[in-house]
Structure formats: structure tokens, C-alpha cells
Amino acid sequence: MNGEKDLAYQAKAWPFEEARKILKRLGGGDLDYKPAKGYVLFETGYGPSGLPHIGTFGEVARTTMVKRAFTELSAIPTRLIAFSDDLDGLRKIPENIPNPELLEPHIGKPLTDVPDPFGTHQSFGDHNNAKLKSFLDQFAFEYEFYSSTDCYKNGRFDNVLLEILQNYNEIKEVILPTLGPERRVTYSPFLPICPRSGVVLQVPVEEVKPEAGTIIYKDPETSRLTEALVTGGHCKLQWKADWAMRWRALEVDYEMSGKDLIDSVKLSSKICRILGSRPPNGLTYELFLDENSEKISKSRGNGLTIDEWLTYGPQESLSQFMFNKPKTAKRLYFDVIPKSVDEYLTNASRYSEQDYEGRIENSVWHIHGGSAPKVKIDITFSVLLNLASACNAEDASVLWAFISRYRPEATPSSDPLLDRLVLHSLAFYRDFVKPYKSYRQPNEKEQAAMIELIERIEVLQDNPDAEAIQNEVYATGKNHNFEPLRDWFKALYEVLFGQSQGPRFGSFAAIYGVSETVHLIKGALSRGNQDERY
After folding, report:
1. Given the DSSP bridges, would you call strands 190-192 and 205-209 parallel, antiparallel or unpaired?
2. Per-residue pLDDT tens digits for 410-460
3. Is residue 208 assigned to a domain?
């Protein structure tokens, strides 16, 4: 290795760390080497029992980042499968759907046999699969969609299903110790799909017939012994056996999963080895939490939806959030959006000035697949939020009036990313800032400091830059003995904006304008009539 490839091989960004593990799995990643199947297969899984949420996107985004890092290290072709477990039986009715009564008679049936409560697709599974594909397409992911229903029914899984039948007892012995006493009595890796009711049955298997490729079970309603083929979609596998079967049948090399599936990964890996295959590599990521620090659930609909994030922040900010520390648990709620937006903007602005070594460590390289657009925005999302707050803006033209004075060359058409940020900031301000504004009066010390700040910035030359204003803000805080100094900034935010935190005050004032900022401070002081001058 030499040059850029050598730098990539030494990169510390987590997608490169994962990519190197895959190379090691393959024996080093010689450019002339290819697996027998001709490519490296990445897989992500989706359970369409509820609408796709951001956690679903996160798994595809992160896997794509690893896949892209791998292609930087090796010439081996790669594929990514987004797999939907849509043959799974509907266990309960999600809380966040319309017309829930339509689903009640279909509990237990495969999701692709359950009516669509939204009325747009042939089944609930098809509706949720379409939502997933639509979103992944919006982000331009390169993937192949696989349906569990299709794979079972078209025979793709038949050979491995027969292998599981041949190893039935050994596989059961792997699973049984993990179950309670009652469940052990009834457990079988195979779940027959009742030809009469269409329900995926949780019933004990009375006999296995490997030579015939069938199992015999007792019909729970008629008590009759019934023989069913394990192939052709007549049976579905229990989750852990199903996962192992899929790994072997598709020859999966890499699949990441959440912390809640650690035990499932271990058991599925054991089953995969029984079948004669090596389990895939994978990263165990921490779970996303909602505003109450509870795990996000598709059926409960807690936390953020995909559409909600994209209402308040650009798609790049969502990818930034997914890139950050996947092994660390994070709250996935509205208040994380501004920070993610500004972090992306900072990294994107830095990207164009970096060499290759710096770029491959930058989140932007991974977000944009190595082809990042040129971004040079010195107006943060936090500043836009405070601009909206200072003038109670509801229209983009109000913010653009301030932006154009600060950056005359910028227009909505010439800077579409900035235009998107303006629209996102107005939506975020409208829904999450304006309703919760809570102004307070400055105390005597804070009032005196604000009066001095007015005097300091009024004498600055016309159109001072952000740094000049920020220096005066710092000097004022120090002159009035604020310790720590952040208490001074906190006071400004609470008195002027009705919030406890905000952007660099100098950046805000430079865009808002010195005279407007002076007017804003005077207006805040006059609310309490604490000084006869204001």
C-alpha cells in the first residue's frame, strides 16, 4: 500500500475501523482477491411492524459509511441489501396508525397479508416497505431491497431451510437454554403458516421429516395433526434461526445491530456455524432514546420521525447525527437538531481546506461518500434561530433582509443550502422556541453590564465584524466580574431572547446589526423600568 490508500488504512474514523475488520475477515483485502460470490455483501434489517423511524435510517446510513470506507481500501465489489422481515406475524397494533380496527382481525398474520390501514397499498407490510424505500431513495442510498415474503415464497431460502430441518435438534439445543420452562416445551425453529387462517402459528412440532422436507404439528383449533412443507413459504423461521438462515443463504459479510440484540447475535452466530457458515462481521451500536431517555419504538411512535427531522433540519444534519459516536447512547429528540446542523456546517466549511488525510477523518467525507460539495457558510443555525427570535420572524424574507446586509452576495438562489437553513430555522423557532420563550429581568449587576455593552458597541466603526463585537462582549463581562464568564452570556440570552443558551453573541449582532442590537438591549432594559435612561 502507498499514498492515499495507506493513509486510509491508518484512518481513525470508525467506518474505516469497521472496514479494516472486514478486510481481515477476507484475508487482508488483496486487490486481486475476490470472494467466491464475487463481492462483499452488506445487509441491514427492517421489521415493518411499524412505520420506518430514524433508527431504521441510521442503520442504513452507518452501514453505507462502512461500505464506502471499504471501497476506499479495496477494489472488491460491494453490495448492500435492505432486508424487510415482512413475513413476520403482526403481534400487536401500532399506536400511531389510522383505522386500527382494520388490523384487529388480522393479528398473527404475516405483515404482507394484513390490510393497509392507510389505504394506499395492498398490505400493511407493503405500505411500510414503500415508506422505507421512498426515504432511502430520497437520500440516494445505493441498495437492493429484499422482501422476506418474496425470498421464502420464491425458493431463495429453500436449501438453507432444509439444512435447518436436517440440523433441527442441534439448533433447538442452542435456543432452549435461553427460554423459560413453558416456552421450552413448545419451542420449534419452524413456525407453520396455517393454510386455513393464514396465521403464523406458535405451536410445538410433533415430528420432523428431513427426507420429506416437512414438519408435523397439531392444528390448535382442530387438534388434527397437519403436515407442512418447510419450503416455499409454508413455514417461517423463528427470529434467531431466521437471522442465521438469512446470513447463510445470502452469504452476508457485514451487518450491524443495536445493543438490545447482543444475545440474538450470539445465538444466531452459533446457528450459522452449525449450518457451516461464518457469521458476518458487525458493529453493536447504542440505542436511540426519546426525550424521557426511553428506547425508541416503532410501535409506540415515540421519539422523532424521519419527516419531523427533515422539517427542522437538512438531511445532512441527520447524517451528521448518525455519524457521531455510534457506540454511545444519544437522545434523539428535537433539541438535538440545531447542534447537529451546526456541527455539519462547521465540518463542511473545514472540509475544502483539508488535505486527503484530514478529509477522510471528517464526517462530511462519510456523509457524502467521498464527494462532498463545497460549503462555506459562516452563519450558524443557532444565529438564524436567534435572528428569528429577536424579530419574531415568520417569513423567510425577514431573515434574508438581515443576511443580505451582512453578505450582499448571498441570495436564496445562489446559496440554496443557506436558504434551506432559513426555512428550517423558521419552522424550529415557530414550534420549539416561540411557545417557550421566558424572558426575565436583569439583576442590578447584569443591568449595569448591559448598559456598558451598549456604550462599547455603539462606538464601533460601521459594520464591525463578529470578532470585534465579541471582544467587546467579553471585555464587558470581565469588567463586571462575571465568574464564570458563561453566566454573562447566559444572562444575555435569557434577558434578550427568553432562552438559556444561544450562538456566539458577536456573530448574531454582526448579522442583526449594531443599531438593531442596541435597540434590542434597550428594549429589554425598558421592560422592567430599571433605569430611567431606558
Report:
1. unpaired
2. 999 999 999 999 999 999 999 999 998 889 999 999 999 999 999 999 999
3. no
**Cα(404)–Cα(383) distance, integer angstroms:** 14
Cα separation, 434 vs 432, whole angstroms: 6
Q: Which set of grid coordinates corresponds to residue 421?
A: 437553513
DSSP 461: P
Report whether 254 contacts 41 (CB < 8 A).
yes
State phi, psi for 382 to the nearest 5 degrees: -65, -40
67 plus 151 within the same structural domain:
yes
What does the CA dihedral 47, 51, 55, 58 come to, rounded to 10 degrees? 90
Are the CB atoms for 321 and 329 separated by under 8 Å?
no
Backbone angles phi, psi at 395, to 5 degrees: -125, 140
Instruction: Write the CB contacts of 157 (distance below 8 Å, at least 6 apart in sequence).
Output: 151, 231, 245, 246, 249
Q: What are phi and psi of 80, to 5 degrees?
A: -130, 125
β-strand pairing of 330-331 with 144-147 = unpaired
Question: Are the C-beta atoms of residues 196 and 169 closer than 8 Å to each other?
Answer: no
Question: Is 15 in the same domain as 84?
Answer: yes
Does one domain contain both 117 and 248?
yes
Q: What is the pLDDT of residues 278-310, one digit of tens each?
A: 999 999 999 887 766 666 665 455 567 888 899
Residue 530 pLDDT level (bands cut at 50, 70, 90): very low
Helices marked H in 407-501:
416-428, 444-458, 466-479, 486-496
Q: Is 277 domain-assigned?
A: yes
Same domain, 282 and 427: no
Domain that holds residue 92: 3-158+238-289
Residue 24 lies in a domain: yes
In a domain, 94, yes or no: yes
Considering the entire predicted model, what is its pTM?
A: 0.88
From the CB of residue 459, how many other CB atoms can be counted at a distance below 10 Å? 9
Residue 60 and residue 102 in one domain:
yes
**CATH, residue 274:** 3.40.50.620
Domain count, the chain: 3
Q: Tell me the C-alpha distance between 440 and 40, whole Å.
A: 59
Closest listed residue to residue 452, CA positions, set 478, 426, 428: 478
Q: Are residues 103 and 17 in the same domain?
A: yes
Residues 498 and 396 in one domain: no
Report CA-CA distances (Å) from 321 to 263, 293, 426. 26, 17, 21
What is the radius of gyration, based on Cα positions, of the chain? 29
328 backbone dihedrals φ, ψ, rounded to 5°: -115, 130
